[in-house]
Amino acid sequence: MALDQSFVGRSYPPTDPYEVGREKIREFAEAVGDANPAYTDPEAAKALGHPDVIAPPTFVFSITFKAAGQVVQDPQLGLDYSRVVHGDQKFVYVRPVRAGDRLTVTSTIEAIKSMAGNDILDIRGEVHDEAGEHVVTALTKLVARAAEES
Amino acid sequence: MTAKIAYDDIEVGTELPAQTFPVTRAALVQYAGASGDFNPIHWNEKFAKDVGLPDVIAHGMFTMAEAIRVVTDWAGDPGAVVEYGVRFTKPVVVPNDDQGATVEVSAKVAAKLDDNTVRVDLVATSSGQKVLGMSRAVVRLA
Question: Could you tell me the domains of chain B?
Fold first, then answer.
């Protein structure tokens, strides 16, 4: 069943702050096998002009996708999450995420489309720091594959 | 932000050094833990096959994280990346053997933009299949 178009533009309340820790960044960088010292060595990060270690570009997805759970699990929207696959992902950065950040995410339903029985949901996650400054926007396209004919 | 590459030294068509990234089952388990994405299609072969996949597949976000390393290693400062987007076109299938899978990533400068930025187009393949589409990054150079 097609998703309700009236949900387009709906925003969800900002999440509680997520505190970015140096060791979490290190764990993530190691998991993707990326030895760039900007992720683990505060001095190396400072030499590049950053106040502390920075996170790899895709690190923030863990935070924004958790926030997007408000949308995908919204019972009123009624998305069948068991049929959802990740279609597209994009990040637009104002600055890199860094250790010490306390980040909140505000999720908005950007678009709802129906193509060949598939529901396509675009979610925008705006990430702000503790000072209220915009850090990064995450654009996530989820595709709920059409249910089989019953 | 201090990229090691100067905008003026770069032309449209400049190729970035290509890289090949191994993807093993162990790496997927480690990524699941680090990212918090414990979807069993990324570590449980029985579950993956039950939902119609050929085998365990890599997290799309793992592949996305690997591909951008071609850009961040080139630029020097990962903070120089101002935009990065991909489409997940095919899954990276990861067999349970000593080798796993590999993802090959190449990239070249597709356009010079304003404000010392360039658009880099990436191509990521695994077993000859394109696994990321519309894969583009915008990077601010020195």
Answer: 7-22+59-140 (3.10.129.10)
